[in-house]
Write a structure and sequence with these properties.
binds magnesium ion; 19% strand; 3-stranded antiparallel sheet; binds 3-methyl-2-oxobutanoic acid; 514 residues; binds acetyl coenzyme *A
């Protein structure tokens, strides 16, 4: 008998992008979608088309350009969302509309203010409308894990009757425990016999750290689609990490006895690409893709691994695409070595970008004795995250900082703001604070610097300084920016100006759309 095939539904570009500060440009979404297709996921949820012009465009471009996986868009259970979603996904080889409505008591009564019967009616109408456009329709009863079992079954029955081909059971707030969640899926199969004729999917969040365990419990209970995000990113504590689910199903094939059709050797590259484009770095001990996962420090472990890797490794590094190769980069390295290293990190670079990066690497190699992998990655991030000329509403022309012992650090700045020259000065607790205060004397005060992080990439006092900052605006939108320089103050100024430009770009786009 053939094994049950598990459909991998990737929602990195939709739910993953709901991670605060993770917003991606249309082009970045397209680059990630191409990589997800190489990884071999079955479905890519590319965005929420009604959310913004940018998200509509991203879903449309993914639909137009990606071959292989189904391309899906999210829509609330109303006509406008579903119509807009279809406009974006209709170009796909295999389009899917995913519509949803919340079913738990607290969501129904306090958020939607709808009766149980009204929700069922809305479900029917939404699925029918989507079905009018597209054969492949997914329906999710949002917050299913906190919905009474019988009512959840009533809603699912209505959605199947109306034509849904996939029913997705979300644990929207990461509340479920593994056995309980598996039992919920069993209950569904038992009480809704027609569930056997559609795909039963799960979508788990990680608020209690159970997202992967709950997804796997659902697979054991008979679910045939699992939703997740690369690196486990997503709303709040994130979604189930797709690479962890994949490697569980493969490494413990003996236990799950299911098939997945995926090229695991693309996992590491996909993870690095996402971390590099979103700036959401993963912890070193993150399962499957963390930097320490195939490293051994302790003598007893090293001794064991030297005899036989299986003593302390349950997966092969090369099976997840972690080559462990350490190309040494220096001033004698050329563009091929730089490209090879960055390609392992998931970067897809234009010739111009490769030239820029190689030049900066050589500059650094002239100043530092050694250029390490992390230096090259930081330089590539810096080069690929540049704003275009038209996106730079604010530019720094000059700045000076005066600091020393027994004096208050003072800074002066000369900026160009929408073409006009502005000068200002400021004082602060330190030189970075002083220059930041000077900038803020000419910039919209509703923008606030809410976080500042400084990291030395490698090396000693001549190391590259990597500054990342978070700004927030009056609507609590978050803008993340990072910049690199050998000079800490220059890196800080560049990051702050980049963050301000990101916020101004968002404002300009919102004004154009309204
Ligand atoms: C669990 C999840 O991940 S769900 C997906 C969450 N993702 C997002 O919300 C990101 C994208 N969202 C957005 O851009 C915006 O919220 C939009 C464009 C969808 C809607 O924006 P707004 O019209 O300004 O509404 P706002 O977000 O403030 O409130 C949500 C509205 O949708 C309604 N709603 C929420 N869920 C649903 C649903 N599944 N079906 C129908 N209506 C819904 C709410 O009742 C509220 O309605 P109201 O405007 O009549 O009060
Ligand atoms: C839209 C739905 C599936 C969702 O993201 C959730 O419930 O978490
Ligand atoms: Mg979700």
């Amino acid at each position: 008998m053939s094994k049950r095939r598990i459909i991998l539904f990737d929602t990195t570009l939709r739910d993953g992008e709901q991670s605060p500060g993770a917003s991606l440009t249309v082009n970045e979404k397209l680059v990630i979608a191409h990589q997800l297709a190489r990884l071999g996921v079955d479905v890519i949820e590319a965005g929420f088309p009604i959310a913004s012009e940018g998200d509509f465009e991203a879903v449309k471009q993914v639909a137009q350009n990606i071959k292989g996986p189904s391309v899906c868009g999210l829509a609330r259970a109303n006509q406008a969302d579903i119509d807009r979603c279809w406009e974006a996904v209709k170009y796909a080889e295999k389009p899917r509309i995913h519509t949803f409505i919340a079913t738990s008591k607290v969501h129904r009564e306090d958020k939607l203010k709808k009766s149980p019967e009204e929700i069922i009616e809305i479900t029917r109408n939404a699925v029918k409308r989507a079905k009018g456009y597209c054969d492949d329709v997914e329906f999710s009863p949002e917050d299913a894990a906190r919905t009474s079992l019988d009512y959840m079954c009533d809603v699912v029955r209505a959605a199947i009757e109306a034509g849904a081909t996939t029913i997705n059971i979300p644990d929207t707030v990461g509340y479920a425990e593994p056995k309980e969640f598996g039992d919920r899926i069993r209950y569904l199969f038992k009480h809704v016999p027609e569930a056997k004729n559609v795909i039963i999917s799960v979508h788990c969040h990680n608020d209690l750290g159970n997202a992967v365990a709950n997804s796997l419990a659902a697979v054991e209970a008979g679910a045939t689609q699992v939703e997740g995000c690369i690196n486990g990113i997503g709303e709040r504590a994130g979604n189930a990490s797709l690479e962890e689910i994949i490697m569980n199903l493969i490494t413990r094939r003996d236990y799950f006895n299911v098939d997945v059709a995926v090229n695991t050797r693309e996992i590491y590259k996909t993870s690095r690409l996402l971390a590099n484009l979103t700036g959401l770095e993963i912890q070193r001990n993150k399962p499957i893709v963390g930097a320490n996962v195939f490293a051994h420090e302790a003598g007893i472990h090293q001794h064991g691994v030297l005899q036989n890797r299986e003593t302390y490794e349950i997966m092969k590094a090369e099976d997840v695409g972690w080559t462990g190769e350490n190309l040494v980069i220096g001033k004698h390295s050329g563009k091929h070595a730089v490209t090879a290293l960055l390609s392992e990190e998931g970067f897809q670079l234009s010739d111009h970008q490769i030239r820029q990066i190689t030049e900066k690497v050589k500059d650094l190699a002239d100043k530092q004795k050694m250029v390490e992998r992390d230096d090259v990655i930081a330089i590539a991030r810096d080069v690929t995250n540049q704003l275009s000329e038209e996106e730079q509403y604010v530019k720094i022309e000059e700045f000076a900082v005066f600091t020393g012992s027994n004096m208050t650090p003072t800074a002066s700045v000369k900026l160009r703001v929408y073409g006009d020259q502005k000068t200002a000065s400021g004082t602060g607790d330190g030189p970075v604070d002083a220059v930041s205060n000077a900038i803020w004397n000419v910039i919209d005060p509703s923008l606030k610097l809410v976080e500042y992080n400084l990291k030395a990439i490698t090396g000693g006092t001549d190391a590259l300084a990597d500054v990342s900052i978070k700004l927030s605006d009056e609507s609590d939108n978050i803008y993340i920016a990072r910049a690199l320089d050998e000079d800490v103050i220059k890196a800080s100024v560049k990051a702050i100006i980049k963050g301000i430009n990101k916020a101004l770009n968002y404002k300009e786009r919102t004004l154009q759309n309204s």
